Every structure is written in structure tokens, then in C-alpha cells.
Amino acid sequence: MTTTTGQRGEPEASPPAPLISVRDLSVTYDVARTGKRLIAIEGVDLDVHEGEFVTVLGPSGCGKTTFMNVVAGLVKPSTGTVLVDGSPVTGPGPDRAVVFQDYALLPWRTVFDNVKFGLEMQKGLKGEGWRDRVQEAIEMVGLAGFESSYPRELSGGMQQRVGLARAFVAEPRILLMDEPLGAVDALTREVMRDEIDKLIQKTGKTVLFITHSIEEAILLGDRIVVFKSHPGAIKEVIETGLERPRSERSVQHDPRFLELRDHLWEALQGEATAAAVSK
């Protein structure tokens, strides 16, 4: 391991390697209808360290979801590399779990069986204890008593809790969240945002969290990655610099929160304007 020398001549350990390392990542698609090639994202570089909560913010169509899908192993890069714990991403793996905006629950399965599906996907039903793991995940997201309910019997917020439990049950190192609160009402969104923050702080998961909400990006993120569009690329990366725990009420008068909100608003407004002009 490489070391450096401190002021007193004592060796200092090198900083830990990032858990997620993205280098010169580009994704292009051939559009059959027009015969043209669409550049979804281009030249993306990003490191995410163990235990970080990184929010990804940008205008619609800027490639945020494509970026997350490459890290998840659901989309192959056209150029560049994505490493997780030093190994190339070649497909989905047990070290990563995805939480989708539209819940993606199986309507014919109960809450218990939908959460169990997270273990089935990772072939984690062997041996003893898997039922306890499913039950613990359900209780962790506050759905004890609803194990036998079907998705149609649940509110949108409750359905998303099932999605969270399904992701947590497999005990991944990395959670990839694609607008997980985008389909719920404003009050539920605020409550669930606080609950997600508490869960992540409790479990120490590494998170990539995509959102369109400036306030959400600030409240949840240790760092905020701002994407620009056409083609999608990283515009800037900002350290949040706010103490935890955070809530919308506790930070709404904080000068740092107000500074970040104004800066991000101007950045996104500029990107939205540029995107409209380019159409």
C-alpha cells in the first residue's frame, strides 16, 4: 500500500479506493426511426466512496437514469469503464440493488413474497434464516402487519416501502435509487425522505440517488452531482456541507442550504434553457 510522510515523519495511509469508479463513460444508441446515433451520456468521470450518499440532479433527458443503469449492470457502456470495488461491472450483481420510481412490484404477490423476490434474484433462499431476513426488512420499513397484503391494497408510499424492503433484504453494499419518491404525494414524499435518510444512516449503505428535486438532492446528499444535457455529462459536483440529521424544516433558514438551493436553481435553469434552444 502506498504511503506518504506526515509532518512528524510518520507514514500516512493513502485514502481508500472508491467503491464505485467511473472513467470516461459514454453510452450511445442507434435510433432506428431516424437512422441517427443518439449520445445519451459522454465522458462521465465519478468516484463514490463507501458509505457516501450521492444525489444525481439534472434536467429531464440528461442521461441520469442511463448512468445509473450502467452502474447497475443493466446497460453496457459504449466506451469507458465502471468498476465496483475494483472489479469491472459486466451485469447485475448481489453487491447492487435498484429501487425504481414505479415500484416494479409483482401484483400477484403479497408484500412478503415481493420482498422475498429480492432474495430469489440473488439465489438467497438456501439454508435457514431467510424468512427472518424478509420479516426484518418488512419491519425495517414500517410495514409489519401488511405481510399478506397485495400491492393493489397499498398506497403509493406503502408500495415504495415494499420496494425499499426488497432492495434491503439482499443486503447489498450499494443502493441505486431512480426517482424513488417521484410518484408519491408531497406529504408522503417528505415523510419517506426522512425515513430513507434514517435507514441509510443506520445501515451505512452507499447510495446513488437520482432526483429532479433540488431540495431533495440537498437534504439527502453528501455530494450532489449535477448533470447537463445534450449530451449528458457532469456539469459539477458539489459538497453539501450540512450536518445530519437534516429535515426541510431544520435547514430551511440555514445560509448554506439557501446558497445551495439558489446555485442549483440557476444551474438547472441554464441547462433547461439550453436544452429548449437546441430542440
TrEMBL record:
Listed A to Z, the keywords are: ATP-binding, Nucleotide-binding, Transport
Checking Pfam families in the record gives: ABC_tran
Which Gene3D superfamilies does its entry note? P-loop containing nucleotide triphosphate hydrolases
Q: Which SUPFAM superfamilies match?
A: P-loop containing nucleoside triphosphate hydrolases
Q: Which PROSITE patterns does UniProt cross-reference here?
A: ABC_TRANSPORTER_1, ABC_TRANSPORTER_2
* A molecular function (GO) term: ATP binding
Q: Which residues form the ABC transporter domain?
A: 22-254
Highest taxon of the source?
Bacteria
For this protein, the record's InterPro entries field holds: AAA+_ATPase, ABC_transporter-like_ATP-bd, ABC_transporter-like_CS, ABC_transporter_ATP-bind, P-loop_NTPase
The protein depicted here goes by the name ABC transporter ATP-binding protein
* Organism (species): Agromyces lapidis
High-level lineage: Bacteria, Bacillati, Actinomycetota, Actinomycetes, Micrococcales
